[in-house]
Give the backbone structure.
Amino acid sequence: MTMSARPAGPFSDRPLIASLAVAALLLTAANLRGGLVVVGPLVMEIRDTLAINASAFSLLTTLPLLCFGVVSIAVPWLSRRCAPQQLAITGLLLISLGVALRLLEQYPLVILGTLLLGSAIAMLNVLIPGLVKSFFPRQVGLMTGLYSVTLSLGAGLGVYLAVPLMEQFGSWRHPVALWALLPLFCLLFWLPMLRVSGVERLGNLARISLWRDKVAWAITLFMGLQSLYFYSMATWLPKILLESGLDAHQAGAATALINLVSIPFNLFVPMLAARMRNQRLLVLGTFTSSFVGIAGLWLQPSAALLWASLIGVGCGCALSLALSFFVLRAANPIQATALSAMAQSIGYLLAALGPFSLGLLRDISGAWHWALGTLLVLQLLQLGFGWYAARPVSVVPDQER
C-alpha cells in the first residue's frame, strides 16, 4: 500500500488531540524500561536491605522477561475484549503499583511487584505498535522512531540517575520511587484518548494467527536475540567493567551510555526503514556495530566508553528495526498486534535465558571470555534472521494459507 493510499487515522484535522496522542504514546514508552533497569546500579544496597543473595536478586531482572514472554501472547485476547486505550491505562496503573511494591522490605511483596511490573510492561509492549498503526497510519516511521527514542531515553535515565539520586537523598528507594510516580503523570494524557473514535477494535474481527509464517518467525527470533543482547549487557556490563578495573561511577556511566548513544539511531532507523524497499543494509550496519563492540570489550576492556558506544548503536538499531518490522510487515493494526504478540512472547522467553546463561558461563570459566564469545556467535544468528525479515514481503496469516 502506498503512503498516499493509507487512511488518515482518527486525528485528521484535529491537531490538539493528535498532540495529546503523541505525548501519551511517548510518555508510555519512557515508562517501559526505567522501573526495571534502575535496580542494576543499586544491587548492593537493595541486597543489603532485603538480606538476599545474588541469585534471589537476579529474579528482579529475570522475572520481568519471563512475564514479557508469558503475558505478551495473551494481549490479543485481551484486546478483543477491551479498547486498546483502556488496556494502556490499566498497564500504566499496574506499572506504578508494581514499582511501589518493589520499595518494600518484604521479599515476597517485592517479587509480587516484579511480576505486576513485568506483566504490565509486556501488555504495553504489544499494544503500542498496533496503536501507532491505528493512530498515525501515515507516520509509522516517524512515530516508531520517536517511540524508540523515548524507550531508550527512559532506560538510560533509569540507570544514569540511580546512583546520583541515591547519594543525594541517602536511600536507594528514592530513584526507584521516581518510576512509580511517572506512570501516574502519563495517565493525564491517556484519559482524553478514551473518547477517541476510529481506532480499530479487535473484538469485532477474526483472530489472527501467524505461527506458520516464516517471516513472522524470522522477526520473532530477531526480536528475541536483540532483547537477549540488550538485557545481557544491561545486567552484566557493570560487573564486566568493574572486574576490568573501572570504578562504580565509570561502569555506571558506560552502561547508561548504551541507552543514551542509541537515541539518534532510535529516531532515524525507523524513518529510513519505512522509506527503504528492504532493510538489509540497516541489518548489516546493526550487526557490524554490535559485533565490533563486543569484540572490543573482550580484547581491550579499558576502552569501555568506545565499546559501550558501539554496543549502544547496535542495541538501538536492533530494537528500532524489530519495532519497525512489526508495522512494516503487517497489512493492518490487527496483524501488527498479532505479530508484536508473537515476537515478544517467544522473543522475551529467549531473552530471559541471556543474563542467567552468561552469568553461568562466567562462574564456570572464571572470566567473561566464554560469555562474550557466545554473544558474538549469537550476533551472527541475529544477522541471519534480520536479513530474512528485511525482505519486502508481508506476513500471511495462517487463516489465509
